[in-house]
Design brief:
Layout (H helix, E strand, L loop, with lengths): L8 E7 L9 E2 L4 H6 L11 E2 L5 E2 L4 H8 L3 E8 L7 H10 L10 H9 L9 E4 L15 E3 L14 H19 L1 H22 L2 H4 L10 H14 L6 E6 L8 H25 L6 E7 L18 E6 L6 E3 L20 E2 H12 L5 H4 L11
Length: 377
């Protein structure tokens, strides 16, 4: 239980494609940043300083405001040894906590199994987006996946049958090659009916929701508004999952990345303001992550896949500030000669959230014991 007697709720927000941490939390007084970023950089006078060394990207202003209010923990240098630069494999590792082999069991799903060991409630975990993230996949663990709450979802009803089949086929194609069609089909046959049943129950939530908060007109704002609608309707969901795509900024990064951060930070601010308006913010914590950072130097138009990224833990229960250490900008400390080296293992951050916030033993979920931080009040 949270200190207010309510059950703790976790929102996991995935930034798909590899967010450029160096242009999100910027080492603005380090000459290496300006030497290595001839084009893909923020000018110093535009940045929003945190201290004498680091500054927020100006398009992250709503998060800077929340940071100043004390509700944003910045996790610097998050990653894992020998970071994999493939999107698919990299995200797979983050989803399963297994860097050495391909496995089926997602870390969020394993946490949901601890919360609802008999798999009785298909709304304990809800994904907002098309299909189902690997993090939430585990045979016997019911999860609901909703693409649009107003039409109550991707996997529901006769009219959406083609859409549902297409999403399940995509899931099958992704994983059957790695682990065989048997386990995949077994998983799908067990979860498909849960997804349908959950979507039917969610139909009631939009009618119950009223708010003065006006969210932005973009995908991540829509998803977070849908999460707010479910959370405030009292359906008992404990873990929400959603994602914002577009972070694979090899080219044209300077127009694309600032817009992504603007949409993201505005959506997060609106979401927490919405929860506060409903007296529903004090038991919600959000974890924002991405599969890897970008390289230290730009490529003349964007940035290529790297490591040593950053994460954020956000909410009223959070003791805001800087956690772990910013990766070294000294070239002799770079991974693979061109990447920021991670300074804390992502499995330690999952462990932090699972153990300290959700009161779940993290060891069997992340497959070991890892250094934690102390980001909660």
């Amino acid at each position: 239980m949270a200190s207010n007697g309510k059950s703790p709720v976790l929102v996991v927000l995935q930034l798909s494609g590899g967010n450029d941490f160096m242009n999100t939390i910027i080492p603005y007084n380090n000459s290496v940043y300006y030497d290595m970023r001839k084009l893909v950089r923020i000018e110093q006078e535009e940045m929003l300083p945190i201290n004498d060394e680091l500054a927020f990207n100006p398009n992250f202003a709503p998060i800077k405001d929340m940071y100043d209010e004390g509700s944003v923990a910045i996790v610097q240098g998050i990653g894992y040894p020998n970071s994999n630069r493939s999107h698919f494999r990299g995200m797979d590792i983050w989803h399963t906590c297994e860097p050495d082999e391909v496995v089926m069991e997602g870390w969020v799903a394993k946490a949901l199994r601890e919360i609802d060991p008999n798999g009785e409630d298909e709304l304990t975990g809800i994904n907002f987006g098309v299909g189902l993230p690997r993090a939430m996949a585990l045979p016997g663990v019911p999860v609901t996946s909703v693409n649009d709450l107003d039409t109550y979802g991707l996997m529901t009803g006769i009219a959406e049958g083609d859409q549902r089949s297409q999403a399940l086929q995509t899931f099958k194609d992704m994983y059957a090659q790695a682990i065989g069609t048997g386990p995949v089909m077994d998983y799908l046959s067990r979860t498909g009916i849960d997804v349908l049943r959950g979507a039917d129950r969610l139909k009631e939530a939009p009618a119950m929701y009223k708010s003065t908060i006006e969210y932005g007109e973009n995908g991540i704002s829509k998803s977070l508004r849908d999460i707010a609608r479910i959370h405030t309707s009292g359906l008992g969901t404990r873990i929400f999952y959603t994602s914002q795509g577009g972070y694979d900024t090899h080219a044209n990064q300077m127009p694309a990345h600032p817009k992504l951060l603007q949409d993201l930070s505005g959506a997060i601010r609106d979401f927490f303001d919405d929860l506060k308006e409903h007296d529903a913010a004090d038991n919600v914590v959000m974890l924002v992550f991405t599969e890897f950072g970008r390289r230290v130097g730009d490529n003349g138009s964007g940035t290529d896949h790297g490591s040593g990224g950053g994460a954020f833990i956000i909410g009223e229960p959070v003791n805001g500030g800087l956690y772990s250490e910013y990766p070294s900008l000294s070239s002799d400390k770079w991974a693979k000669g061109e990447d920021l080296e991670h300074t804390i293992d992502f499995r330690g951050i999952y462990s932090t959230v699972l153990e300290q916030w959700m009161a779940i033993d993290p060891v069997p979920i992340v497959n070991g014991t890892y250094e934690q931080i102390q980001p909660f009040k």
